[in-house]
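Morning run. Coffee first, then this:
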Amino acid sequence: MRALFPLTLLAFAGCQTTTDPAEGGFFNGVSGIATGAYDDRIDAAEADVASAQTRNDALAAQIRGRESELAQLKLKILQQRDGLGGTDPATAQRIDRVLNSNPTGSTDAEKLASLQRSIADAKALSADLARLSG
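And here it is:
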């Protein structure tokens, strides 16, 4: 009976499996390879990377679109300013602030948010300039 107990423990220890190669061990490694658990982990990690890349690409495309929109608004504001001929000092200062704005951010999400704020400011200014000319 005493000899059976250590053999039973050894059998249970051999049945433990892990899908984490870092937890290793010969039997766990063989089991991970044989069952395909390691391949499944690799496939899941690659899918996560592909998903993150897709999100990053979409965010970069949004940023490019917003940068283009802001550039068009700045051009429109320049044309509106030139059409007015002259403005009061407060409006002239506001125009300069919007035209010279350079949205930044330490992350793409922060840059996108900064661009959206600048676009909102530019749209509001453009609407005010349109009221002044009309």
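The chain has a mean pLDDT of 83. Good start to the day.
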